């Protein structure tokens, strides 16, 4: 097997047979000619069922997440590309569960995942329990009490960057006959490959680092369990929440630089996290690359870099947090994450507004940074200036200033 960065560029990217085009063409056709009834060419029939560009992406994603597994598992691994991360999660849950089943969910899961499980699956008879998955005793107790069929883990989590030992959690889940699903959106396979640590399924919002340029919404599932993959394949077509050809093409384009982007995101974020720790306006910094982070050692074992996401809590409370996110100029106030450009957000009222008042609620003085790959000196200067303005509070009184010059 070749190495990760080589697979990122070449897996599922064989030059076009007919023309020799080095980059496989983008296939927009919704239907495919049949050589006599049922005489399909390479299995292509109708764009919902299969599309060559989507297949290219799926082959690539399977190679990235499962490429280092033992041969038998590696060849069984399949990836499925969806219209969004939540569409992927929805199809996975339908494939793995039936009414009466239960999900054990980390108490810091992405708000949209919680909304899907609670607000959609709840009314179809699927129960859920939230637990701190880094608390082994609590996790065991919850599994014994609920007989959950799925343990749903995010590591690092969104937005508090909590780290859980994937191998330990996989062993515990399997003891109770549950599947371990890891949402690998924050780390990406460039930094962490959960299937290598015993996880059963990986899910992604490819909207984030995999796409990497904030210009596509998509999702994916990867698993090496043949029976589960068969159920997902059926629903992929039967429900139809598929990734569109152009979206698949953009994701493939993004993946070619995934390795170098993740290295650069990690490098910039480490510098910024260390600077924020020293800042008087900052009460607490969440970044797994800091030795003070409670999950630092586990992260160092199961990840090859600490990623580009940082959260901070501000000493000035909710007002300071809202001021800070409105005062940066390079860090753009927006939802989402994982693009080459830096973004800043206020989860309490943005990405995690749907979990206010639930066990997954986010503190109201917390700000989340998606550190991009701009020059780190410019990023530091931007954050510094914004924190200073936030602390004096003049920004809220006078409105944002219009010029970039200080
Ligand atoms: C964004 C996100 C999702 C949902 O993905 P969409 O593409 O927005 O549907 C799921 N998990 C995590 C960790 C995310 O950040």
Which CATH class of the largest domain applies here?
Answer: Alpha Beta
Mean pLDDT score: 94
**Low-confidence runs:** 391-406
Strand order, biggest sheet? 1-7-6-5-4-2-3
- The CATH superfamily of the largest domain bears the name Type I PLP-dependent aspartate aminotransferase-like (Major domain)
Stated plainly, the CATH topology of the largest domain is called Aspartate Aminotransferase, domain 2
Helix/strand class: alpha/beta
CATH architecture of the largest domain: 3-Layer(aba) Sandwich
Alpha carbon gyration radius:
22 Å
- Globular, elongated, flat, extended or rod-shaped: what is the shape? globular
Run of helices and strands: HHHEHEHEHEHEHEEHHHEHEHEEEHH
Task: Give a written overview of the molecule.
- The radius of gyration is 22 Å and the shape is globular.
- It is of the alpha/beta class and 406 residues long.
- The chain is built from 15 helices and twelve strands.
- Helix 4 packs across helix 9 (226-239).
- The protein has two domains: 4-255, Aspartate Aminotransferase, domain 2 (3-Layer(aba) Sandwich); 259-388, Alpha-Beta Complex (Aspartate Aminotransferase, domain 1), CATH 3.90.1150.
- Strands 1-7-6-5-4-2-3 form a seven-stranded mixed sheet, sandwiched between helices. A five-stranded mixed sheet has the order 8-9-12-11-10.
- Residues 84-86, 110, 112-113, 154, 158, 183, 185-186, 205, 207-208, 217, 219 line the site of pyridoxal-5'-phosphate.
């Amino acid at each position: 097997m070749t190495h990760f960065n080589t697979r990122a560029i070449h897996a599922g990217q064989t030059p076009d047979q007919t023309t020799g085009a080095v980059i496989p063409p983008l296939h927009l056709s919704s239907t495919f000619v049949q050589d006599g009834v049922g005489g399909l060419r390479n299995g292509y029939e109708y764009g919902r069922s299969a599309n060559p560009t989507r297949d290219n992406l799926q082959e690539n994603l399977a190679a990235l997440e499962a490429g280092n597994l033992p041969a038998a598992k590696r060849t069984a691994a399949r990836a499925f590309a969806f219209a969004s991360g939540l569409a992927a999660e929805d199809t996975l849950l339908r494939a793995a569960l039936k009414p009466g089943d239960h999900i054990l969910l980390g108490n810091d899961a992405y708000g949209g995942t919680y909304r899907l499980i609670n607000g959609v699956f709840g009314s179809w008879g699927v129960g859920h329990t939230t637990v701190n998955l880094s608390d082994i005793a609590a996790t065991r107790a919850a599994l014994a009490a609920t007989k959950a069929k799925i343990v749903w883990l995010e590591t690092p989590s969104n937005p508090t960057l909590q780290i859980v030992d994937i191998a330990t959690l996989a062993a515990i889940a399997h003891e109770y006959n549950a599947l371990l699903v890891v949402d690998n959106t924050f780390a990406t396979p460039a930094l962490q490959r959960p299937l290598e640590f015993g996880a059963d399924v990986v899910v992604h919002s490819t909207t984030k680092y995999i796409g990497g340029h904030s210009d596509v919404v998509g999702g994916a599932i990867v698993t090496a369990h043949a029976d589960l993959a068969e159920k997902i394949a059926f629903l992929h077509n039967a429900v139809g929440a598929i990734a569109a050809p152009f979206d698949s093409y953009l994701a493939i384009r993004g993946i070619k630089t995934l390795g170098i982007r993740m290295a650069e995101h990690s490098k910039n974020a480490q510098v910024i996290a260390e600077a924020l720790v020293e800042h008087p306006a900052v009460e607490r910094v969440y970044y797994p690359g800091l030795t003070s982070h409670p999950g630092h050692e586990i992260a160092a074992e199961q990840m090859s870099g600490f990623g580009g996401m940082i959260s901070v809590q501000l000493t000035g409370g909710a007002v300071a947090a809202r001021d800070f996110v409105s005062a940066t100029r390079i860090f753009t106030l927006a939802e989402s994450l994982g693009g080459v450009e830096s973004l800043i957000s206020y989860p309490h009222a943005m990405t995690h507004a749907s979990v206010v008042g639930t066990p997954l609620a986010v503190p109201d003085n917390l700000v989340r940074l998606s550190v991009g790959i701009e020059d780190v000196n410019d990023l530091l200067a931007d954050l510094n200036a914004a924190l200073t303005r936030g602390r004096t509070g003049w920004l809220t009184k006078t409105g944002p200033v219009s010029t970039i010059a200080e």
